[in-house]
Amino acid sequence: xxxxxxxxxxxxxxxxxxxxxxxxxxxxxxxxxxxxxxxxxxxxxxxxxxxxxxxxxxxxxxxxxxxxxxxxxxxxxxxxxxxxxxxxxxxxxxxxxxxxxxxxxxxxxxxxxxxxxxxxxxxxxxxxxxxxxxxxx
Length: 137
Known about the structure:
By secondary structure, the chain is mainly alpha-helical. The chain has six helices and two strands.
């Protein structure tokens, strides 16, 4: 019989927090674990391995739904890799789009910061831009 782990040990070994483990269970990403008579969660080595898979996938920017799909593909040893690559390429495109958006926001904020005197005067182009004109945003 293999040793089962408490949630704190599963969290430590997988790199997920106990809160995230409970969240992922709640949304069905992680299967309901075995429980003791006192209703404490107990995780197998395979459960912890899957948690690590989820953590690494999240670290790479995959969405929860993509991770759900990837987990299904990972569990299916007869799968091809085309679907996995397609999911990865879609995630790359989304990350690139987000990076471009963040870069544009950074450029805008740098321009605003460069025009602000940063002294004791009350006028501030940053606050003016945030205030916007009536009807903006």
